[in-house]
Write a structure and sequence with these properties.
Blueprint (H helix, E strand, L loop, with lengths): L15 H12 L2 H8 L3 H15 L4 E4 L2 E4 L1 H25 L5 E7 L1 H18 L3 E7 L13 E6 L9 E11 L2 H6 L12 E9 L2 E4 L1 H7 L9 E5 L2 H9 L4 E6 L3 H5 L13 E10 L7 H26 L6
Parallel strand pairs: 3-4, 3-5, 7-9, 7-10
Antiparallel strand pairs: 1-2, 5-11, 6-10, 6-11, 7-8
Length: 323
């Protein structure tokens, strides 16, 4: 880089900058690195610029609003990755001497709060010697680098998670509390025009996301104009608003299974309102695949899904709704 002193053989480098570099190099995106590290995009960009100045080398080529590693960037990324793996391995070996065993699982925030976390106490009762750590993140975390054992990852329709085992399909359908379903007609999709829609609007690694957009498009109602709309940044907020009678939300199965079975929410359109939307896969970190407790956890997940499947079949027989 112009103006940089290249005469130093061993530049003084701040190790704090290397984590941001590693994330940016892995994603080839300052934006996605910032999301992973809970920083702003400009903060990551400044860190990379500072690191380049300390090294006297460009680490990224900026091309068409994207990134590409330079030869120096590729060398540094390889070295940083190897160092992080060495550190992680040492931590694993030290942790193995602890009296209790730790299992770390990551999944999306909606599935964690509504499906996984309420069930984890059952797994802990079966294995009281295990400390379970749940990491909720809407971006895919690197299992090796973040020292995670198991991930439950959603894949869009027609795609899959490389190396993962399909765990369950996801269904989307309108839900509301019983009083909302009885106040105004809601027996066909077009009736949604007279209701307030509760929407999840957020930004994911692949771009903006709205719960209602794929459902309405899938049902041929992309131009539907509702009576009103309330928008939230987290799915548990959407569910809370639906339970409070604020409008109609997009329910997810299995996320809302207990709300439906307990009668707190109903699916007034029945089976006609169901849209299959991708699936969740269970993925085990290569470093954890032979751990007995990890194998038992995956087997426990399969059993929970089997129990859910039996309950879902019963709901299908009832037409999903309380009509």
């Amino acid at each position: 880089m112009p103006g940089m002193d290249k005469s130093r053989r061993r530049p003084r480098v701040s190790l704090d900058l290397l984590k941001g570099f590693e994330a940016a190099a892995r994603h080839l995106s300052f934006t996605r690195a910032a999301q992973e590290l809970s920083l702003t995009q400009s903060a990551v960009s400044r860190e990379i610029k500072k690191l380049e100045e300390q090294l006297g080398q460009l680490l990224f080529d900026r091309i068409n609003r994207g990134l590409r590693l330079t030869p120096a960037g590729r060398d540094l990324h390889r070295a940083v990755g190897e160092a992080l793996n060495l550190i992680g391995g040492a931590i694993d070996r030290l942790g193995a001497t602890a009296a209790s065993e730790t299992l770390t699982v990551t999944t999306s925030a909606p599935l964690a709060s509504l499906w996984l976390v309420p069930r984890l106490s059952g797994f802990v009762r079966l294995h009281p010697e295990v400390d379970v750590r749940c990491v909720a993140a809407d971006q895919w975390l690197d299992l090796q680098r973040e020292r995670l054992d198991v991930a439950l990852r959603w894949a869009s329709p027609g795609s899959s998670v490389p190396g993962g085992e399909r765990l369950f399909d996801v269904e989307m359908f309108p839900v509301c509390c019983p009083s909302v379903a009885s106040e105004r007609p809601l027996s066909r999709a077009a009736d949604l025009a007279s209701h307030v829609l509760l929407d999840l609007e957020t930004v994911t690694a692949s771009g903006p996301w709205s719960d209602w957009a794929p459902w309405l498009e899938g049902k041929g109602l992309a131009n539907l104009k509702p009576a009103g709309a309330l928008r939230f940044s987290h799915y548990d907020q959407v569910v809370r608003a639906a339970l409070d009678g604020s409008g109609v939300a997009v329910g997810r199965m299995p996320h809302n299974a207990h709300h439906i079975s307990d009668g707190l929410l109903v699916a007034p359109l029945g089976k006609e309102g169901v849209l299959r939307w991708g699936a969740y896969f269970v993925l085990v970190s290569p470093r954890a695949v032979e751990r007995p407790i990890v194998k038992r956890f995956v087997a426990w997940l399969r059993e929970e899904v089997r129990i859910d499947g039996a309950s879902t079949a019963h709901r299908h027989q009832r037409g999903y709704s309380a009509r």
